[in-house]
Amino acid sequence: MGEVRDLPEALAEPVARVRAGWMSLLFFANIALWLGIYAPIQVLLPKQAELLDAANKEAVFSLVTGIGAVVALIANPAVGLLSDRTCSARGRRHPWTAAGAAVAAAGLLVLAFAPNVAVMVLGWCLVQAGLNGMLAMLVSAIADRVPVPQRAQVGGLVGIAQMLGTVLGAVVVVVMLDLAGLPLGYAVCAAIVLAGAAAFVLRTPDARLPVAFRPSARTRDVLANLWISPRRHPDFAWAWGCHFMINLGNAFGTLYLLFFLKDAVHYEDPDTGLLIMMGLYGAALIVGALIAGHFSDKTGRRKPYVLAASAVMAIAALLLVVWQNWTAALAASPLLGVGYGAYMAVALAMLTQVLPTAQDRAKDLGVINIANSLPQVVAPMLTAPILAYLGGYPSLFAASALSTVIAAVLVTRVKGVS
Q1: Are the C-beta atoms of residues 318 and 113 closer than 8 Å to each other?
Q2: What are the respective helix, strand and coil percentages of the chain, to the nearest 5?
Q3: Cα 278 to Cα 39: distance, rounded to the nearest angstrom
Q4: 404 and 317 in contact (C-beta within 8 Å)?
Q5: Is 14 helix (H, G, I), strand (E, B) or coil?
Q6: Whole-angstrom Cα distance, residue 226 to residue 222?
Q7: What is the pLDDT of residues 211-252, one digit of tens each?
Q8: Three-state DSSP state, 394
Q9: I need a labelling partner for 414 at 20 to 30 A (CA). Which of 54, 79, 324, 390 fits?
Q10: Distance between CA atoms of 102 and 105, rounded to whole angstroms?
Q11: How far is it, in rounded angstroms, from Cα 135 to Cα 282?
């Protein structure tokens, strides 16, 4: 017990409930972050791919997002590991949040004027590196600051922020495209990312890590520390697998929606159709996140909500397996939203409860965040052959449903969380 009392604030388990002001700033920062990721993925990158090479737009889009996702895989745990060893007077997370936002904004501006696919890849890699570093810090803030009985509530707000960032991003860039084309869309995204990061960094506390508690910085120790043994930490491994499969299913179901509306549904205005679908998705996500977050914290249980969310998301995907029409798209959107919202609320709470050590929170959460980024590598690699050779969009949405069912099976193996 003496060691626990002697831990510095940066490593101690949080017990004081966070207030509305802190949650609001985290909420805004997450909106900015997810807008910076999904506005390009949903609208700007597909449009740019089509402008640069209309005949091979799907291949260009897959190439850009796939390479960017590889960068995200590296950036997330790497920035987390560096922040765990940062003893700055300004804290160990905030300097990296600010740096990540700056790198991402620079990448968005590179994209704004990319004359070819190679520069487009470079710009998106900068965006992914910066925003995934920022993501590692914002997720770490939950483990650093939020007590366990409040984490599903905060996780629900983060899920809502992700949705709002996605929806607002689509609205903003569609409006900007109508006004001035791709450059203005990318520039507005960059400004919003910087504003969200600045507000959180400048107006929230970040505990300083005393030098005496800094983990070893020897290269061999650092590299060894990146590995988290599934045998020693099985709950971490099963929870990671669940998170990966949920995000893989979500990637299968959402990455190609614009092309789905255009090429399979033949909707006359796919941009507007996407906005309608995202609006329904977003409203349902808010409901799912708030309800699941409230009752999960109240009961202290996580797994039943993950199981229910997985089932609802699988049903949404199966609707689009059977019917590729506008009516089915309208029905599937809110189902996917309520399921993903419920999952996101509970997932962050569950994932922060299976972390191996407080000293490596950001690095471990960075490893978990690979489960967010890796599907962006795997999904484009698998989607192209699925669409071309394995049955088209029905098979793609079947893969989405199967992924979420596997996630439900994996979460049942987590023993340390009820």
Answers
A1: no
A2: 80, 0, 20
A3: 12
A4: yes
A5: coil
A6: 7
A7: 888 877 666 666 666 677 788 889 999 999 999 999 999 889
A8: helix
A9: 79
A10: 5
A11: 20
